[in-house]
Amino acid sequence: MLKFDVAVVGGGVAGLTAAIYAARAGKQTILIEKQERLGGRAMTHKKKGAYFNLGGHALYHGDALSTFRELGLQLPGGQPSVDGYGIWKGKLSPLPMGVKSLFTTPLLSWKGKMELGAWLAKLGKLDTQLYDNMSLREWIEGNVQDPMVRNLFYSLLRTASYVVAPDLQAAGPVLQQLKHALKGVLYLDRGWGAMVDELKQKALEQGVQIVTKNKVISVEHHEGKARHVLCGDGMKIEANHIILTTPPAVAHELVPHAEETALHTWKEQAVEVTAACLDVALRRLPEPKQQFVYGLDQTVFLSNQSRAAYLSDDGAQVITLLKYQGKEKDARRDLQELEETLDLVQPGWRNELVEKQYLPNITVCHDFMHVKRQENPGPAVPEIIGLYVAGEWAAHGELLVDAATASAKRAVEHILSLESEERTPNEHRVIV
Ligand SMILES: Cc1cc2nc3c(=O)[nH]c(=O)nc-3n(C[C@H](O)[C@H](O)[C@H](O)COP(=O)(O)OP(=O)(O)OC[C@H]3O[C@@H](n4cnc5c(N)ncnc54)[C@H](O)[C@@H]3O)c2cc1C
């Protein structure tokens, strides 16, 4: 039996962040990942010289970026221009994202241009928390008049959050994410895998013990206290604190009698979000001006990430396409829609193809901020002392990877605050 202060289950962004912060606070920390490589959904695969993330990934100006900066990560990469196009009725039109395109776009009437211009000017100052308990559709239909400006908002907010559920999605958090997006996003050189490598390096520097290729099969607790983690190879790790960064359903499965704990509510209320992702590396772009496209009447998105980041060793252009999936998913139809989008934006792309990757149904998040949530998950599982959850689904208002880092830090802060609470009465006694 190994003994640690903190055991972290899962080596994605949440797990790595939690392990680094726990170790930085002086805790003997172990991280256990079931896959051979760390990174989870932030992994990058190199194919024929091109770096493919698991679908299109961009870092927003949110919690993750500030956390990584605080930890001293380099994060080389670049900020892409937002000049782009919208797809409307099968045609490309310039998207009104700047002053010039706002005046020239054929997508909007004069009234629509005035309304969108006013919104772009005031969005930065919007107090988004006012809309936390309202659905996205309620917010858009109640606040935006022009039908095409509404379409633009649906498209921008879908792209910022990956969610196609306007009646369910809470408006406040996604509007906040749009505010982050409008500050510009960061595409990372060599993909998000490079960020994972930097996180791994920081974890090792802090003395985190990292175990890969070992699946946690059970988290034992006794008399209301977490005791140890049991791994597939028989390794048993005793820990005062156990942080689960697995999906909510897996966390539920790992903990005996989870149905009597908040893990049950968190699993039941979770609404999964998926996407179909097509990534292609092209020798050259048939249409070099068309690099960034939002679907307005389709839930698709395209971005040539190579316009801002180093994503290929031989100069190929790495384009990422996404089909945001609502309830309806069909791997073949989604691929066809994505390929048709490429045909429209980069005609003749097949002649330039170096490599492609298609992920028909990948989980973007296991849960998000929606109006039917009973409670925000974690950080502590109230019924079991020493048991915590983190991960992008354990959001308290944040979205995507920002929720992964924020929830990881919340778990560690909770551990530290408990310990300082335990110390205080003793110190008090000594003084008296
Ligand atoms: C297509 C796509 C596009 C995205 N784009 C963006 C974006 O643009 N911006 C953004 O902010 N976010 C984006 N995201 C979301 C982002 O990738 C995730 O929020 C983040 O990587 C989640 O990290 P995590 O640590 O919470 O979960 P994960 O990465 O899923 O990590 C969980 C880890 O736990 C491990 N594990 C599970 N069970 C066990 C077990 N029993 N024992 C041991 N290990 C276990 C898994 O193998 C995994 O490594 C995107 C995601 C996808 C899929």
UniProtKB/TrEMBL annotation:
Domain (Amine oxidase) ranges: 13-416
Pfam families with a match to the protein in the record: Amino_oxidase (PF01593)
Gene3D superfamilies listed in its UniProt record: 3.90.660.50, FAD/NAD(P)-binding domain (3.50.50.60)
Gene Ontology molecular function, alphabetical: oxidoreductase activity
SUPFAM superfamilies per record: FAD/NAD(P)-binding domain (SSF51905)
Protein name per its UniProtKB record: FAD-dependent oxidoreductase
